[in-house]
Amino acid sequence: MKRSTSLNKLALAFAISASVSTTAYAADLTVEIKGLTSGNGQVFIALYDKSEGWMKNGLKSVGTPAAKDGVTYEFKDLPVGEYAISIYHDENGNGKFDTNVAGMPIEAYGFSNDAMGNYGPPTFEQAKFKLGTDKKTITLNLK
Amino acid sequence: MDRRSFLGAASTAATLPFLFSAVGAGAEAVAPKPLFANNPRLTPFRGFAGQDVACDNVAVEGKIPAALRGVFYRNGPGLFERGGQRYQHWFDGDGLLNAWRFTDKGVSHQAKFIRTEKFVAESEAGEFLMPSFGTAIKAKRPVKNSDSANTANTNVVRLGDRLLAMWEGGSAYDLDPQTLATRGVVTWKPELKAMPFSAHPKVEADGTLWNFGSAGFGKIVLYHLSAAGEMLRYHLLDSPPSAMVHDFAVSQKHIIFLLAPVTMDRDALKAGGSFGESLRWNGKESVKVLVVEKADFTKQVVMEMPAFMVFHFGNAWEINNMIRVDFVKSDSLDIMREYMPRLMRGESVAAAASNACFMKIDLSRRQCSMETRSESVEFPRIDPRFVAQRNRMVFYPSYVGHDPSSRFNSVLRVDTETGKTDRYTFGDDVQLEEHIVVPKPDSLKEGVGWLIGVGFDQARQQTFTTVFDALNLSAGPVAIARLPYWMPLCFHGNFYAA
Fold it and tell me: What is the average pLDDT across B88-102?
């Protein structure tokens, strides 16, 4: 169920981005992810373009196979603007960001700018970065 | 991608204690200075520089009883300074595990720093990298979860083939009971990874172990383990909120918490204050007496008492729906908030009073009452065979005399039925740690055995351990084993017979 829902969201996200990309200058964003402790499971990447919906409804969310040396993913044809990214390593491949019974993260996660929260996740403002009309590569570290 | 659960997890985590601020901008650690030059009494608060020590043949005065054979493990904060920074709070130091071994060859001592993730990383870096309980150290590495800052510095119990070194905010660390080498954090079940496993488990005579973890404001996780160390049951309990829950008590049928009116000032925390600095005492609020059934963790009763602070419990037992619970109470958080930071600065200060207290919890009428004794005490312990059973005696380090800045200089036994006491007082040159009861192997009678404990002799600048006849403290120690060096003070420990 979850998989089909997220696939639908993913399809929708791509549809939106496709329609947007025809109306503005666009660039490709390469996301390099380091700090994996194993090559098991997938790394999930959520891309946000505004603070509304931060950590809730991303512009795009994708899963890509994990590799111990690191993972690279490219978002193509993104409009010029501000973005922020959240990632986690679904190491056991259960499609979820696992937490312990008190809700504390037990799988590795990270944010753009390697932003760190203060008793919780960082804000969109802390994690945001600018994407212009040139290609850009950013690096995130899982923790 | 399950974004919803990611969000849920992240926002829940925001309520967890010990998921520390990563931006520390508040009171920074003070620079180390020759703080203790004029105060030899406080030498143990200087701490070690991370070195392990050992003494194969400890000098013994008197005679170690022939039947007293085994290992006396103790744990406490041992390192307070790195890279030009000094911790402000006694609770902050890295765990230093001590083993006093009593064998036919005599007494030996070994102390080894617990190689927590934090200790290893900070040793390599040569500086503090993680926030601590009472000092706003700026995080220099990502704080992934509670265990990133886990110092494993508070207590030690043996469970099966594991020696568990425990802290209040994160996982227990597993050590080798012989070598004291660190094996790593204990994850009882995947969903319990990095959950707090508090430092005051209660171990019944049959080896059954009960423990809890304070899992955020208004959440307590309860644990029930077998003597072999299997996690039989756990339950996340909705409890009255308290930001500091250090210890609890267990009776035959119940688990008892006294939840003090302590809250977390989230603004202070957000502004970069340490966890300890951001705790607030609300003396006009009540203590919540939370009683949970051992057989069914979902069944609980809550009663109220006027405000007081409690760190440590002795024991609980019940008869005819009336629970008796003993603990040490103080009036507020001052001991932790004011007294300990001043000790850490090398100041001679008088501690706020802490006294033995005896509470009756009437489950039928839902009423509580309590009586407080006048002696200055802490660290209550009982005969370990009587945990969660009817007991009569409680043992404490205690203070008597006229120098209010002196620390515990005597051992005290209180008979809870007659109110009579048995006490031995060292001079003011001595400060004592917790003392524990080691039963004689051939007796089942309460208190028949030895009271053993560690102290610091400021005149000699040495740490020692003493053995008393537990039923005749006033006769003085039957043996004293003196180290040729001093050790940082420990918090808690336990003895395991050979």
Answer: 97
Q: CA-CA distance, B111 to A47, in Å (whole number)?
A: 50
Confidence at residue B354, expressed as pLDDT on a 0 to 100 scale: 94
Q: Using an 8 Å CB-CB cutoff, list chain A residues near B223.
A: none
B3-497 belongs to which CATH class? Answer: mainly beta
Question: What CA–CA distance (Å, rounded) separates B433 from B422?
Answer: 18
> Which of B314, B349, B352 is closest to B334 using CA atoms?
B352
Q: Which residue in A104, A106, A126, A142 has the most chain B C-beta atoms within 10 A of its own C-beta, making it the best mutation to test that interface?
A: A104
Contact B5/A96, CB-based, under 8 Å?
yes
Domain A2-141 of CATH type 3.90.1150.10? no
Task: Break chain B into its structural domains and give their ranges.
Answer: 3-497
The pLDDT assigned to A117 comes to 74
Cβ–Cβ under 8 Å, residues B45 and B83:
no
Domain definitions of chain A by residue range = 2-141
Check if B2 contacts A (Cβ < 8 Å).
Answer: yes
Cβ atoms within 10 A of the Cβ of B262, count? 20
- Whether chain A has a CB inside 8 Å of the CB on B192: the answer is yes
Enumerate residues 6+ apart whose C-beta is below 8 A from B216.
A102, A103, B12, B15, B16, B17
B10-22 pLDDT, tens digit each: 333 333 333 333 3
* Element counts in chain A: helices (H) and strands (E): 2, 8
- Set of chain B residues whose Cβ sits within 8 Å of the Cβ of A119: 13-14, 16, 19-21, 266, 269-270
Cβ-Cβ contacts under 8 Å between A and B: the total is 117
For chain A, strand residue ranges (E) read: 26-34, 42-48, 60-65, 71-79, 81-90, 109-111, 129-131, 136-141
B19-B21-B22-B27 Cα dihedral, nearest 10 degrees? -140
In this prediction the pTM is 0.89
Q: Are the beta carbons of B423 and B443 closer than 8 angstroms?
A: no
